[in-house]
Automatic annotation (TrEMBL):
<dbReference type="InterPro" id="IPR036514">
    <property type="entry name" value="SGNH_hydro_sf"/>
</dbReference>
<dbReference type="InterPro" id="IPR013830">
    <property type="entry name" value="SGNH_hydro"/>
</dbReference>
<feature type="domain" description="SGNH hydrolase-type esterase">
    <location>
        <begin position="34"/>
        <end position="205"/>
    </location>
</feature>
<protein>
    <submittedName>
        <fullName>SGNH/GDSL hydrolase family protein</fullName>
    </submittedName>
</protein>
<dbReference type="InterPro" id="IPR053140">
    <property type="entry name" value="GDSL_Rv0518-like"/>
</dbReference>
<dbReference type="Pfam" id="PF13472">
    <property type="entry name" value="Lipase_GDSL_2"/>
</dbReference>
<dbReference type="GO" id="GO:0016787">
    <property type="term" value="F:hydrolase activity"/>
</dbReference>
<keyword id="KW-0378">Hydrolase</keyword>
Length: 224
């Protein structure tokens, strides 16, 4: 069955808002921030049968069902690298003082002729270190395999290397990782926007649901 067969209501990977909110009924977070690039922002074309919101706005809407007074900051900028995020978004994020914070996974750092993964790791560690000083629960996700830039013949290897780096650094800071690399949604027709890079809003809806599931699991482990 292709993605064109689904709507947001029938998509097996999407949670209804009421169900998502029920999974986060005891969520303590009151100040939610998102920093980074277009993937953090939830940029994507509209999908027929789905809402127009990106994953981050969708997730904020779910949290507001639990915390109606939720404060939400999204400073993500299309094209931002990890260096751009450090230089132009960290200060505003720290002033906001989040207790839940989403970090980028460095997608735009791959768009060089020869990415310097040592430098990328250094930037990510600095970003995570500054983020951890807020005391917030950190989240991030890995890049999905549907994200392809054909001009680079080694693109898959680049993504796999970056995803491994993301998982390793995130683990050191107890960040929640929503792993999208091999999620079944990657195989769907019409998943990508016209730019062939960003998930359309059908994929954004799935990412939002996966974020809910991942954070619900985190909350459940805290009560054990």
């Amino acid at each position: 069955m292709t993605s064109t067969s689904f709507t947001e209501e029938t998509d097996p990977f999407c949670l209804a808002t009421v169900d998502a909110a029920a999974m986060l009924f005891d969520a303590p977070w009151q100040r939610y921030a998102v920093i980074g690039d277009s993937l953090s922002a939830g940029t994507g074309d509209k999908s027929v049968g789905y809402g127009s919101e990106g994953w981050s706005d969708r997730f904020a809407h779910v949290l507001r069902q639990v915390r109606p007074d939720l404060a939400y900051l999204n400073t993500a900028v299309i094209g931002a690298t990890t260096v751009d995020t450090l230089d132009h978004q960290i200060d505003e994020m720290r002033d906001f003082a989040p207790d839940l914070l989403h970090l980028p996974c460095g997608a735009n750092d791959l768009l060089r002729r020869s990415p310097d993964f040592g430098e990328i790791e250094q930037n990510m560690r600095k970003m995570y270190g500054l983020a951890a000083e807020t005391g917030a629960q950190l989240t991030t996700f890995t890049l999905g395999r549907a994200y392809v830039v054909p001009v680079f013949p080694d693109w898959t290897e680049r993504v796999l290397t970056l995803n491994d780096l993301t998982r390793a650094v995130a683990d050191e800071y107890d960040a929640v990782v929503v792993d999208m690399w091999d999620h079944p949604v990657n195989s769907r027709e019409n998943l990508l926007s016209a730019d062939r890079i960003h998930f359309s809003t059908s994929g954004q809806a799935v990412i939002a649901s996966e974020m809910v599931k991942a954070l619900a699991a985190t909350l459940a482990r805290r009560t054990l």
